[in-house]
Design goal:
Elements: E1 3-10, H1 16-25, E2 30-34, H2 47-52, H3 54-72, H4 88-113, E3 116-124, E4 129-134, E5 139-149, E6 153-155, E7 168-169, H5 171-174, E8 183-187, H6 191-202, E9 206-211, H7 222-234, E10 238-241, E11 244-251, E12 254-261, E13 264-270, E14 272-275, E15 279-281, E16 314-316, H8 327-341, E17 355-357, E18 362-367, H9 370-376, E19 380-386, H10 391-395, E20 402-408, E21 414-421, H11 424-436, H12 441-446, H13 456-465
Parallel strand pairs: 1-2, 1-5, 2-3, 5-16, 7-14, 8-9, 8-14, 9-10
Antiparallel strand pairs: 3-4, 4-5, 6-15, 11-12, 12-13, 17-18, 18-21, 19-20, 20-21
Helix pairs in contact: 1-4, 1-8, 3-4, 3-6
């Protein structure tokens, strides 16, 4: 007799484990299937994000940033340390401990909430049945009232740069370098490429980033993108746009990369090469032919605005469905689906999902960019405020970048915001809250912000939308 559950979740990443916990909190008998096995060959929860994605990369970003600060910024504060060095082995060990703490934390939360965890793979069959195969190959079938698919995504591989052990690597391999490469190549100037390039660049690598697109960070407000490219260049990161990689050749533990740009074919030799050209939804072995779930033309599971698939009682969330591939988007979709299974009318506001690049300076944005509004012929006003005029940023010697807020020219409702600078992700979140409540730029401008704080840049940018900024000269541009 098969096991019976109210909900079976396939995937234990930030979408799946959050969905499972919320389902259990709502009184639903819930199971979660996760196939991830760590380097010690032990099953763990957390998926890509906790094990080889968001969390370990941020651990290395913070370590490398502190190292760079000690080398280059301490003297500015009157602090003398002598020659600064870094122990890569200890840095990696710290990263692993953080990952271990968090993955064990998810397992503890499963126990506390009564989620039944299964270690292995899941396959959706017809009639909401799930075929579970454990790591020893044993198979059993679960019956479920509802199934939530949360299988995530995997790095895209490209034919011109096949992965080669310890020389050409994906984002996972780039977290495991045991020494700093002298010359590091990165294919792809997106979030992952910039973050990983930053880590090893701060530690001493000479970093060259090859981006096939002609525009740098084409999804980001181009005012921010231009500022970011300038600042990354000052940091020593060589970003080449319009550079399409055509081939690689690995010899004697080095790789020669050939690429085509506007000037013709060129080549560069690197000690390591990171392929970071994006991610694709993971659906291998996931769906039986008669399960009723369909994929779209790009390989994503087709869902409606509430994450329902074409099969009754089957839902899909996170990287495996449309929308930005972000852990927080997956988690909130998981909560929405759990609530809907329980009969509530939960919804997710896809217009208010923030994105962050954790370089230094950080880059964050939410809502519409100026480029999108201009293309759509919308009328809008823009307010900007530089961190160079913010007292707290000056005190911290961290004055690069600015806050940019865009509001509707007629209603003054905030349509979007972009931040490049210190704590950009946290500052952008303030605008997310404002947008979620339908705030105007005037609303934010009328709020009291503590002084001195970095947040005051948000306040001044909101005031600047209507030409009322106090700590910078106001211009009076006409509505676009």
């Amino acid at each position: 007799m098969s096991k019976q559950f109210d909900v079976v979740v396939i995937g234990g990443g930030p979408g799946g484990y959050v969905a499972a916990i919320r389902c259990a909190q709502l009184g639903l008998k819930t199971a979660c299937i996760e196939k991830w096995v760590n380097k010690e060959d032990k099953p763990v929860l957390g998926g890509t994000c906790l094990n080889v994605g968001c969390i370990p990369s941020k651990a290395l970003l913070d370590s490398s940033h502190k190292f760079e600060e000690a080398q280059e910024k301490f003297e500015l504060h009157g602090i003398s340390t002598g020659k600064v060095s870094i122990d890569i082995e200890k840095m990696l060990a710290r990263k692993e401990q953080i990952v271990k703490n968090l993955t064990m934390g998810v397992a503890t939360l499963f126990k506390a909430n009564g989620v039944t965890s299964f270690e292995g793979t899941g396959k959706l069959l017809a009639n909401k049945q799930v075929e579970f195969t454990d790591h020893s190959g044993n198979v059993e079938v679960f019956d479920a009232e509802n199934v939530i698919i949360a299988t995530g995504s995997v790095p895209v591989e490209i034919p011109p740069a096949p992965l080669t052990e310890d020389v050409i690597v994906d984002s996972t391999g780039a977290l495991e370098f045991t020494k700093v490469p002298k010359r590091l190549g990165v294919i792809g100037a997106g979030v992952i490429g910039l973050e990983l390039g930053s880590v090893w660049g701060r530690l001493g690598a000479e970093v060259t980033v090859l981006e096939a697109q002609d525009n740098f960070l084409h999804l980001v407000d181009q005012t921010v993108a231009k500022e970011a490219k300038k600042l990354f260049g000052k940091q020593g990161m060589d970003i080449r746009v319009g550079a399409r990689v055509t081939g690689t050749d690995v010899k004697r533990k080095k790789v020669t990369v050939t690429y085509q740009d506007s000037e013709g074919e060129k080549s560069e030799e690197f000690d390591k090469l990171i392929v970071a050209v994006g991610r694709r939804p993971y659906t291998e072995g996931l769906l039986s032919g008669d399960c009723g779930v369909n994929l779209d033309e790009r390989g994503f599971i087709h869902v409606d605005e509430t994450c329902k698939t074409d099969a009754p009682g089957v839902w899909a969330i996170g990287d495996v469905v449309r929308g930005p591939m972000l852990a927080h988007k997956a988690s909130e979709e998981g909560v929405m689906v759990a609530e809907r299974i329980h009969g509530h009318k939960a919804q997710l506001n896809y217009e208010c999902i923030p994105s962050v690049i954790y370089t230094h300076p950080e880059i964050a944005w939410v809502g519409k960019t100026e480029d999108e509004l201009k293309s759509a012929g919308e009328k809008y006003n823009v307010g900007m405020f530089p961190f160079a005029a913010n007292g707290r940023a000056m005190a911290a010697a961290d004055t690069d970048g600015f806050v940019k807020i865009i509001a509707d020219a007629e209603t003054d409702r905030i349509l979007g915001a972009s931040v490049i600078g210190p704590n950009a992700g946290d500052l952008c979140q303030q605008i997310v809250v404002a947008m979620e409540f339908g705030s105007s730029a005037e609303d934010v401008g009328m709020m009291v912000f503590a002084h001195p704080t970095i947040s005051e840049a948000v306040h001044e940018a909101a005031l600047a939308v209507n030409n009322q900024a106090i700590h910078k000269a106001n211009r009076r541009p006409k509505s676009k």
